[in-house]
Design a protein that fits this description.
The protein is α/β, with parallel strands linked by helices. 35% of the residues lie in helices and 19% in strands. The chain is built from 17 helices and 17 strands. The strands form three sheets. Strands 10, 11, 12, 13, 14, 15, 16 and 17 form an eight-stranded mixed beta sheet that branches. Strands 1-2-3-4-5-7-9 form a seven-stranded mixed beta sheet, sandwiched between helices. Strands 6-8 form a two-stranded parallel ribbon. It is elongated. Bound molecules: hexanoyl-coenzyme A (HXC).
Length: 480
Amino acid sequence: MGKKLTVYERIETLLDKGSFTEVDKYVKHRCTDFGMENKRVAGDGVVCGYGKIDGRTVYVYAFDFSVLGGSLSAANSRKIAKMQDMALKCGAPIIGLNDSGGARIQEGVESLTGFAEIFRRNVMSSGVIPQISAIMGPCAGGSCYSPALTDFILMVEGESQMFITGPNVIRQTTNEECDKETLGGAKVHAMTSGVCSLVCRDDEECLMTIRELLGFIPSNNMEDAPVHPATDDVDRVCHELDNVVPANPNIPYNIKDIIEPICDQQYFFEIQPDFAKNIVVGFGRMAGRSVGFVANQPNYLAGAIDIDASDKAARFIQFCDSFNIPIVAIEDVPGFLPGIQQEHAGIIRHGAKIVYAFAEATVPKITLITRKAYGGAYIVMNSKQIGADINLAYPSAEIAVMGAKGAVSILYRKEEPENIPARIKEYEDKFANPYFAAELGYIDDIIQPADTRRAIIRALDCCRNKSVSNPPKKHGNMPM
Ligand code: HXC
């Protein structure tokens, strides 16, 4: 594990060298209760300002835990709100480096309302400018909810925690024993709660990862993401894809073995890699332009969609759509995950989020079916009728209501056992291929795996100037 940096070192590391300009460094709190008149520090424990990342303007605020536990005062909430207002009106990303015990207890309702000011601005900025939160120390209460309202949360392993109420309060109220790390450490939020987008080994890796992440994203919703010079051949044939999908539909494979080779420089930047591993989301570049990938992962739960996978995918799709990043869906999905636990926990309302997010997205939307595309999961994974622009399939694609065995067990319940294999074969011949769907125009083309990169780049290119808009409304009502 690398060094824990001071607040100014963090900002210097995050931004292009020498580009930081500090704002409001003379601000002090005005609290005089609990001996606070003797604890007035210039800046009041949060450093604010603006600078550049790869030459693009960003706004930054960073908590200094060494000043009263990085607690939020009314004064430093006004500093942060000022940065949020500037970032919003100037169309620039805002980055929060959080290391804070939440609302400053000595100030009571004054500091509490400071969080309300920040939250409201987080919400107003959502979908307009990218908001990125790093958690670089213990963060409690409001110092978790503000990041939760932003687009991405990065945590530092072993150093950062997030919880609404800390171990002491939990002990007193529920008698449960935990420490800060088991309650809200990076691993917990990356693997179990899904709060964390990316875990980093140390401060430096965290700050470098923010820089990299921003490279895939435009500065605001009126721009396109930065275009990188396309040094990788757009027509590159990917023979390494020839044998990725096993002939036996029951054998899993790693969907990233399809995503990585088709990206420029074969580089895929995964988001939430340890949460809901049955769906893979992240950014890549194709022909130099940012693309958001949403892919079922046959290696985990056979790629079936469950509650967590639905939430993860829907949020990522919404992000891409908000910021003009085209979406490529790669599909190999046997269906929604069956089970009482899933049904009772609300797979209906959670699964509905993927439909909602794909259907609502107006960015270019491309789908590639590599193997299974069964049932409702076929529909929701960016099918033609949900609104995809170009739908492609490998010859190994199977597009049906369900697998052949399951279908035959329902259609031919009373059939003699010796006739069952022939019935299965009949169903397979009809649906265990993409040709019937292609005949109907639901699949635009059937491609060889080696041609995947070229075909997707062409599909994206033909949609470059896509312009559609949804009916005017105040906002929709996404299921939650
Ligand atoms: C004032 C605070 C503080 C706070 C920490 N400190 N949190 N001072 N207001 N909210 C001070 C401590 O008194 C201590 O001061 C110094 O910061 C370091 O804190 P430690 O407890 O020694 O550090 P550590 O053991 O690392 O624990 C960090 C911590 C813990 C887990 C964050 O301090 C903690 O539980 N703090 C309170 C968290 C909390 O309940 N905050 C309010 C949430 S309500 P000295 O002088 O001893 O060095 C909220 C409102 C919004 O935020 C809610 C929206 C949903």
